[in-house]
Amino acid sequence: MKTTLAVIKADIGSIGGHIVPSRQLIAEVESYVKKNGLEKGLLLDFNISHTGDDVAILMTHTKGKGNEEIHKLAWDAFIAGTEVAKKQGLYGAGQDLLKDSFSGNVKGMGPAVAEMEFEERPNEPFLFFAADKTDPGAYNLPLFLAFTSPMHNAGLMLSPAMKDGFKFVIMDVAYTEGDRIIELNAPEDLYDIAALLRDNQRFVVESVYSRGTGDIAATVSTTRLHNIAGKYTGKDDPVMLVRVQGAFPATGEVLSPFNIGHYVAGFMRGSHTGPLMPVKRNSTISYFDGPPVVSSSAYCVHNGLLTEPADAFDHPYWDYVRTNVSRKATEIRQQGFSGLAMLPYGELEYGGIVEKMKKLDGKFTVR
Ligand code: 13P
Ligand code: 13P
Ligand code: MG
Ligand code: MG
After folding, report:
1. pLDDT tens track for 185-228
2. What residue spans of the chain are helical by DSSP H?
3. Which residue has the CA at smallest separation from atom 3 of ligand 1?
4. What are phi and psi of 345, to 5 degrees?
5. Catalytic residue chosen out of the listed positions 135, 235, 237, 299
Protein backbone atom coordinates (compact mmCIF):
# COMPACT_ATOMS: atom_id res chain seq x y z
CA MET A 1 0.00 0.00 0.00
CA LYS A 2 1.31 3.43 -0.94
CA THR A 3 0.66 6.22 1.54
CA THR A 4 0.04 9.78 0.42
CA LEU A 5 1.15 12.46 2.83
CA ALA A 6 -0.45 15.81 2.05
CA VAL A 7 -0.45 19.19 3.70
CA ILE A 8 -2.75 21.93 2.48
CA LYS A 9 -2.62 25.27 4.28
CA ALA A 10 -4.33 28.62 4.01
CA ASP A 11 -4.75 31.90 5.82
CA ILE A 12 -8.51 32.24 6.25
CA GLY A 13 -8.59 34.96 8.88
CA SER A 14 -6.93 35.91 12.12
CA ILE A 15 -7.34 37.77 15.39
CA GLY A 16 -5.91 41.27 15.79
CA GLY A 17 -4.40 41.58 12.30
CA HIS A 18 -2.20 38.95 10.68
CA ILE A 19 -1.14 37.20 13.85
CA VAL A 20 -3.13 34.11 14.85
CA PRO A 21 -6.37 32.32 13.84
CA SER A 22 -9.09 32.08 16.49
CA ARG A 23 -9.68 28.88 18.46
CA GLN A 24 -13.20 28.73 17.07
CA LEU A 25 -11.91 28.91 13.49
CA ILE A 26 -9.44 26.09 14.09
CA ALA A 27 -12.10 23.99 15.83
CA GLU A 28 -14.40 24.44 12.83
CA VAL A 29 -11.73 23.34 10.33
CA GLU A 30 -10.89 20.38 12.56
CA SER A 31 -14.47 19.21 12.97
CA TYR A 32 -15.15 19.66 9.24
CA VAL A 33 -12.18 17.48 8.27
CA LYS A 34 -13.05 14.90 10.91
CA LYS A 35 -16.68 14.61 9.83
CA ASN A 36 -16.21 14.81 6.05
CA GLY A 37 -12.75 13.25 5.69
CA LEU A 38 -11.92 10.84 8.47
CA GLU A 39 -15.38 9.55 9.31
CA LYS A 40 -16.27 9.08 5.63
CA GLY A 41 -13.13 7.00 5.05
CA LEU A 42 -11.53 9.50 2.67
CA LEU A 43 -8.62 10.08 5.04
CA LEU A 44 -6.64 7.61 7.10
CA ASP A 45 -5.60 10.32 9.55
CA PHE A 46 -5.10 14.08 9.90
CA ASN A 47 -3.77 16.79 12.18
CA ILE A 48 -4.59 20.51 12.30
CA SER A 49 -2.08 23.13 13.42
CA HIS A 50 -1.33 26.77 12.81
CA THR A 51 1.84 28.79 12.35
CA GLY A 52 1.20 32.50 12.71
CA ASP A 53 -2.04 33.21 10.83
CA ASP A 54 -1.86 30.11 8.61
CA VAL A 55 -3.93 26.98 9.26
CA ALA A 56 -2.42 23.70 8.02
CA ILE A 57 -4.31 20.45 7.44
CA LEU A 58 -1.86 17.54 7.45
CA MET A 59 -3.51 14.42 5.98
CA THR A 60 -2.74 10.82 5.15
CA HIS A 61 -4.65 8.80 2.56
CA THR A 62 -4.19 6.32 -0.31
CA LYS A 63 -5.51 8.36 -3.23
CA GLY A 64 -2.23 9.77 -4.55
CA LYS A 65 -1.05 13.33 -5.17
CA GLY A 66 -3.38 16.03 -6.49
CA ASN A 67 -6.50 13.99 -5.72
CA GLU A 68 -9.64 16.02 -6.36
CA GLU A 69 -11.66 14.65 -3.43
CA ILE A 70 -8.85 15.39 -0.98
CA HIS A 71 -8.27 18.87 -2.34
CA LYS A 72 -11.99 19.60 -2.26
CA LEU A 73 -12.18 18.41 1.34
CA ALA A 74 -9.45 20.89 2.34
CA TRP A 75 -11.00 23.69 0.28
CA ASP A 76 -14.43 23.10 1.82
CA ALA A 77 -12.92 22.93 5.32
CA PHE A 78 -11.32 26.34 4.68
CA ILE A 79 -14.65 27.67 3.39
CA ALA A 80 -16.31 26.45 6.62
CA GLY A 81 -13.52 28.10 8.66
CA THR A 82 -13.96 31.32 6.67
CA GLU A 83 -17.63 31.42 7.68
CA VAL A 84 -16.54 31.38 11.32
CA ALA A 85 -13.93 34.05 10.57
CA LYS A 86 -16.63 36.25 9.05
CA LYS A 87 -18.98 35.67 11.99
CA GLN A 88 -16.26 36.62 14.44
CA GLY A 89 -15.15 39.59 12.35
CA LEU A 90 -11.63 38.21 12.04
CA TYR A 91 -9.15 40.15 9.98
CA GLY A 92 -8.61 38.89 6.40
CA ALA A 93 -11.44 36.33 6.48
CA GLY A 94 -10.89 33.97 3.55
CA GLN A 95 -7.62 35.77 2.67
CA ASP A 96 -6.02 32.92 0.71
CA LEU A 97 -9.17 31.60 -0.98
CA LEU A 98 -8.69 33.51 -4.21
CA LYS A 99 -11.26 31.80 -6.42
CA ASP A 100 -15.03 31.72 -6.04
CA SER A 101 -15.54 28.04 -6.65
CA PHE A 102 -13.45 24.90 -6.43
CA SER A 103 -12.11 23.61 -9.73
CA GLY A 104 -10.44 20.25 -9.27
CA ASN A 105 -7.21 21.12 -7.46
CA VAL A 106 -6.40 23.80 -4.88
CA LYS A 107 -3.11 24.56 -6.67
CA GLY A 108 -3.52 27.94 -8.30
CA MET A 109 -6.48 28.81 -6.07
CA GLY A 110 -4.57 30.30 -3.12
CA PRO A 111 -3.87 27.55 -0.55
CA ALA A 112 -0.33 26.13 -0.40
CA VAL A 113 0.11 22.41 -1.07
CA ALA A 114 2.92 19.94 -0.43
CA GLU A 115 2.28 16.26 -1.17
CA MET A 116 4.30 13.07 -1.48
CA GLU A 117 3.40 9.44 -2.14
CA PHE A 118 5.60 6.57 -1.02
CA GLU A 119 5.77 2.97 0.09
CA GLU A 120 6.14 3.26 3.87
CA ARG A 121 9.36 1.99 5.40
CA PRO A 122 8.87 -0.24 8.48
CA ASN A 123 9.52 2.95 10.42
CA GLU A 124 8.64 6.18 8.64
CA PRO A 125 9.73 9.36 10.41
CA PHE A 126 9.18 12.74 8.73
CA LEU A 127 9.14 16.46 9.48
CA PHE A 128 6.37 18.88 8.60
CA PHE A 129 7.51 22.51 8.34
CA ALA A 130 5.24 25.56 8.14
CA ALA A 131 6.54 29.10 7.75
CA ASP A 132 4.70 32.41 8.09
CA LYS A 133 5.57 35.93 6.87
CA THR A 134 7.91 34.64 4.18
CA ASP A 135 7.89 32.79 0.85
CA PRO A 136 8.89 29.35 -0.52
CA GLY A 137 12.47 30.47 -1.26
CA ALA A 138 12.98 30.57 2.51
CA TYR A 139 13.59 26.80 2.41
CA ASN A 140 16.26 27.02 -0.33
CA LEU A 141 19.25 27.47 1.94
CA PRO A 142 18.21 24.99 4.68
CA LEU A 143 17.48 22.31 2.03
CA PHE A 144 20.73 22.97 0.19
CA LEU A 145 22.71 22.64 3.41
CA ALA A 146 20.81 19.65 4.84
CA PHE A 147 21.08 17.62 1.62
CA THR A 148 24.51 18.65 0.31
CA SER A 149 26.75 19.98 3.07
CA PRO A 150 28.81 17.79 5.41
CA MET A 151 28.93 20.90 7.63
CA HIS A 152 25.30 20.12 8.57
CA ASN A 153 24.77 16.60 7.32
CA ALA A 154 27.37 14.31 8.85
CA GLY A 155 25.62 11.37 7.18
CA LEU A 156 27.04 12.49 3.81
CA MET A 157 30.41 11.40 5.22
CA LEU A 158 29.32 8.62 7.55
CA SER A 159 26.31 6.85 6.07
CA PRO A 160 26.68 4.55 3.00
CA ALA A 161 22.94 5.06 2.40
CA MET A 162 23.59 8.67 1.34
CA LYS A 163 26.79 8.15 -0.65
CA ASP A 164 25.11 8.77 -4.04
CA GLY A 165 23.77 12.16 -2.98
CA PHE A 166 20.45 13.76 -3.87
CA LYS A 167 18.57 15.05 -6.88
CA PHE A 168 17.13 18.59 -6.65
CA VAL A 169 14.06 19.57 -8.66
CA ILE A 170 14.08 23.37 -8.85
CA MET A 171 11.21 25.50 -10.14
CA ASP A 172 11.34 28.86 -11.89
CA VAL A 173 8.44 30.47 -10.01
CA ALA A 174 8.49 33.61 -12.19
CA TYR A 175 7.21 31.50 -15.09
CA THR A 176 3.42 31.47 -15.09
CA GLU A 177 2.50 29.41 -18.19
CA GLY A 178 3.19 26.12 -16.41
CA ASP A 179 5.68 24.43 -14.08
CA ARG A 180 9.13 25.31 -15.48
CA ILE A 181 11.58 23.00 -13.73
CA ILE A 182 15.18 21.82 -13.85
CA GLU A 183 16.68 18.66 -12.31
CA LEU A 184 20.20 18.87 -10.93
CA ASN A 185 22.26 16.33 -9.02
CA ALA A 186 24.28 16.87 -5.87
CA PRO A 187 27.19 16.66 -5.49
CA GLU A 188 28.23 17.00 -9.20
CA ASP A 189 26.01 19.99 -9.96
CA LEU A 190 26.53 21.68 -6.60
CA TYR A 191 27.71 25.01 -7.98
CA ASP A 192 24.86 25.14 -10.50
CA ILE A 193 22.36 24.38 -7.74
CA ALA A 194 23.87 27.20 -5.66
CA ALA A 195 23.80 29.58 -8.64
CA LEU A 196 20.03 29.07 -8.91
CA LEU A 197 19.14 28.83 -5.22
CA ARG A 198 20.84 32.13 -4.32
CA ASP A 199 17.83 33.80 -5.98
CA ASN A 200 15.07 32.89 -3.50
CA GLN A 201 12.40 34.88 -5.33
CA ARG A 202 12.91 33.26 -8.71
CA PHE A 203 14.18 29.70 -8.16
CA VAL A 204 12.68 27.49 -5.49
CA VAL A 205 13.42 23.91 -4.49
CA GLU A 206 10.24 22.00 -5.36
CA SER A 207 11.42 18.55 -4.31
CA VAL A 208 14.46 16.45 -3.43
CA TYR A 209 15.03 12.74 -4.18
CA SER A 210 17.50 10.17 -2.88
CA ARG A 211 19.73 9.08 -5.76
CA GLY A 212 20.49 5.81 -3.98
CA THR A 213 16.88 4.62 -3.78
CA GLY A 214 15.06 7.04 -6.10
CA ASP A 215 12.70 7.82 -3.21
CA ILE A 216 11.11 11.19 -2.59
CA ALA A 217 12.86 12.95 0.30
CA ALA A 218 11.35 16.45 0.45
CA THR A 219 8.61 18.51 -1.13
CA VAL A 220 7.84 22.23 -0.84
CA SER A 221 4.77 24.31 -1.73
CA THR A 222 5.68 26.70 -4.55
CA THR A 223 2.58 28.93 -4.81
CA ARG A 224 2.97 32.54 -5.90
CA LEU A 225 -0.22 34.26 -4.70
CA HIS A 226 0.71 37.38 -6.57
CA ASN A 227 0.62 35.45 -9.86
CA ILE A 228 -2.86 34.10 -9.04
CA ALA A 229 -4.51 37.23 -7.71
CA GLY A 230 -2.59 39.73 -9.85
CA LYS A 231 -2.14 41.86 -6.74
CA TYR A 232 -0.92 41.55 -3.15
CA THR A 233 -3.20 39.43 -1.02
CA GLY A 234 -0.70 38.04 1.49
CA LYS A 235 2.70 36.39 1.40
CA ASP A 236 3.12 32.85 0.01
CA ASP A 237 3.75 31.37 3.46
CA PRO A 238 5.21 27.97 2.52
CA VAL A 239 4.84 24.41 3.89
CA MET A 240 7.31 21.56 3.45
CA LEU A 241 7.48 17.80 4.12
CA VAL A 242 10.85 16.07 4.65
CA ARG A 243 11.37 12.34 5.21
CA VAL A 244 14.24 11.63 7.59
CA GLN A 245 16.68 8.86 8.69
CA GLY A 246 17.89 5.87 6.69
CA ALA A 247 18.59 6.98 3.10
CA PHE A 248 17.63 10.53 4.11
CA PRO A 249 19.32 12.99 6.47
CA ALA A 250 18.77 12.46 10.21
CA THR A 251 16.16 14.70 11.83
CA GLY A 252 18.85 16.80 13.50
CA GLU A 253 20.68 17.21 10.19
CA VAL A 254 17.57 18.68 8.57
CA LEU A 255 17.01 20.96 11.58
CA SER A 256 20.66 22.03 11.78
CA PRO A 257 20.66 24.84 9.14
CA PHE A 258 17.68 26.47 10.84
CA ASN A 259 20.03 27.67 13.56
CA ILE A 260 21.39 30.26 11.09
CA GLY A 261 18.27 32.42 11.13
CA HIS A 262 19.11 33.45 7.55
CA TYR A 263 17.54 36.59 6.14
CA VAL A 264 14.49 35.92 4.00
CA ALA A 265 11.82 37.92 2.17
CA GLY A 266 8.61 38.77 4.02
CA PHE A 267 8.14 40.37 7.46
CA MET A 268 5.88 43.46 7.52
CA ARG A 269 3.52 43.70 4.52
CA GLY A 270 5.51 40.98 2.77
CA SER A 271 7.90 43.69 1.64
CA HIS A 272 10.90 43.46 3.94
CA THR A 273 13.92 41.37 4.80
CA GLY A 274 14.01 39.54 8.11
CA PRO A 275 15.71 36.57 9.74
CA LEU A 276 13.82 33.24 9.82
CA MET A 277 13.07 32.31 13.43
CA PRO A 278 12.43 28.65 14.36
CA VAL A 279 9.36 28.65 16.64
CA LYS A 280 7.13 26.19 18.44
CA ARG A 281 3.95 24.77 16.89
CA ASN A 282 0.95 27.05 17.09
CA SER A 283 3.08 30.15 17.64
CA THR A 284 1.82 33.65 17.04
CA ILE A 285 3.32 36.63 15.19
CA SER A 286 4.33 39.88 16.79
CA TYR A 287 7.21 42.29 16.18
CA PHE A 288 6.80 44.24 12.89
CA ASP A 289 4.36 41.52 11.74
CA GLY A 290 7.17 39.06 12.18
CA PRO A 291 9.85 38.17 12.35
CA PRO A 292 9.40 35.50 9.65
CA VAL A 293 8.86 32.21 11.51
CA VAL A 294 9.09 28.50 10.81
CA SER A 295 7.71 25.61 12.88
CA SER A 296 8.65 21.95 12.60
CA SER A 297 6.54 19.00 13.71
CA ALA A 298 8.12 15.55 13.77
CA TYR A 299 5.91 12.49 13.20
CA CYS A 300 6.04 8.83 12.41
CA VAL A 301 3.43 7.36 10.09
CA HIS A 302 2.52 3.69 10.00
CA ASN A 303 -0.17 2.19 7.77
CA GLY A 304 -1.27 5.77 7.24
CA LEU A 305 -1.77 6.44 10.94
CA LEU A 306 0.08 9.42 12.39
CA THR A 307 1.66 9.53 15.82
CA GLU A 308 1.10 12.65 17.86
CA PRO A 309 3.43 15.44 16.72
CA ALA A 310 6.73 16.02 18.49
CA ASP A 311 7.58 19.72 18.41
CA ALA A 312 11.08 19.83 16.93
CA PHE A 313 11.81 23.47 17.85
CA ASP A 314 10.48 23.13 21.43
CA HIS A 315 13.84 22.58 23.09
CA PRO A 316 16.13 24.84 25.19
CA TYR A 317 18.69 24.95 22.35
CA TRP A 318 16.24 26.81 20.13
CA ASP A 319 15.60 29.43 22.86
CA TYR A 320 19.23 30.43 22.39
CA VAL A 321 18.72 30.52 18.60
CA ARG A 322 15.55 32.58 19.00
CA THR A 323 17.47 35.12 21.08
CA ASN A 324 20.13 35.40 18.35
CA VAL A 325 17.50 35.72 15.64
CA SER A 326 15.73 38.44 17.65
CA ARG A 327 19.00 40.34 17.68
CA LYS A 328 19.35 39.94 13.89
CA ALA A 329 15.75 41.13 13.45
CA THR A 330 16.36 44.19 15.63
CA GLU A 331 19.56 45.04 13.79
CA ILE A 332 18.09 45.04 10.30
CA ARG A 333 15.07 46.98 11.53
CA GLN A 334 17.36 49.79 12.71
CA GLN A 335 17.70 50.84 9.08
CA GLY A 336 13.93 50.93 8.49
CA PHE A 337 13.18 51.38 4.80
CA SER A 338 16.75 51.81 3.70
CA GLY A 339 18.47 49.56 1.16
CA LEU A 340 18.50 45.84 1.96
CA ALA A 341 15.98 46.18 4.80
CA MET A 342 13.26 46.30 2.14
CA LEU A 343 12.78 44.07 -0.90
CA PRO A 344 13.62 45.33 -4.40
CA TYR A 345 10.92 47.29 -6.21
CA GLY A 346 9.58 44.30 -8.20
CA GLU A 347 9.03 42.28 -5.02
CA LEU A 348 7.21 44.94 -3.01
CA GLU A 349 3.83 43.50 -2.20
CA TYR A 350 1.79 46.67 -2.48
CA GLY A 351 0.49 48.26 -5.68
CA GLY A 352 0.41 51.66 -3.97
CA ILE A 353 4.11 52.14 -4.48
CA VAL A 354 3.65 51.84 -8.26
CA GLU A 355 1.10 54.69 -8.23
CA LYS A 356 3.36 56.75 -6.03
CA MET A 357 6.39 56.26 -8.29
CA LYS A 358 4.31 57.17 -11.36
CA LYS A 359 3.18 60.41 -9.71
CA LEU A 360 6.71 61.29 -8.59
CA ASP A 361 8.09 60.46 -12.02
CA GLY A 362 5.93 63.20 -13.50
CA LYS A 363 7.38 65.73 -11.08
CA PHE A 364 11.00 65.08 -12.08
CA THR A 365 12.70 67.76 -14.19
CA VAL A 366 15.95 67.41 -16.14
CA ARG A 367 18.40 70.29 -15.59
P1 13P B 1 20.66 5.47 14.15
O2 13P B 1 21.95 4.85 14.59
O3 13P B 1 19.51 5.13 15.00
O4 13P B 1 20.38 5.33 12.68
O5 13P B 1 20.81 7.03 14.39
C6 13P B 1 21.70 7.72 13.65
C7 13P B 1 21.25 9.09 13.73
O8 13P B 1 20.30 9.43 13.11
C9 13P B 1 21.94 9.99 14.65
O10 13P B 1 21.67 11.30 14.27
P1 13P C 1 0.20 37.11 5.77
O2 13P C 1 0.71 36.83 4.38
O3 13P C 1 0.75 36.15 6.78
O4 13P C 1 -1.29 37.18 5.79
O5 13P C 1 0.78 38.51 6.23
C6 13P C 1 0.45 39.63 5.47
C7 13P C 1 1.01 40.92 5.95
O8 13P C 1 0.83 41.88 5.25
C9 13P C 1 1.77 41.03 7.19
O10 13P C 1 2.14 42.37 7.45
MG1 MG D 1 -2.82 37.07 6.97
MG1 MG E 1 0.46 34.07 6.92
Report:
1. 999 999 999 999 999 999 999 999 999 999 999 999 997 776 66
2. 23-33, 68-88, 140-148, 155-158, 190-197, 225-229, 251-255, 316-333, 352-363
3. 245
4. -45, -50
5. 235
- The model's pLDDT over 247-269, given as tens digits with 9 standing for 90+, comes to 999 999 999 999 999 999 999 99
Whether 259 and 161 share a structural domain: yes
Establish whether 40 is a catalytic residue: no
- CATH number of domain containing 50: 3.30.70
Please confirm, yes or no, whether 11 is among the known catalytic residues: yes
Mutate which of 121, 245, 251, 300 for ligand 1 pocket (most atoms within 8 A of beta carbon): 245
CA distance 303 to 257: 31
Please list every protein residue whose CB sits less than 6 Å from any atom of ligand 1: 245, 250, 252
Helix (H) or strand (E) holding 59: strand 54-61
Cα distance between residue 35 and residue 190, in whole Å: 47
Residue range of the domain that includes 153: 120-367
For residues 166 and 193, membership in a common domain is answered with: yes
Does 150 share its domain with 269?
Answer: yes
3-state SS class at 247: coil
Which residues have their alpha-adjacent CB atom under 5 A from ion ligand 4? 11, 53-54, 132, 237
pTM of the model: 0.96
Identify whether residues 137 and 226 lie together within a single domain.
Answer: yes
Spatial contact of 239 and 114, defined as CB atoms under 8 Å apart = yes
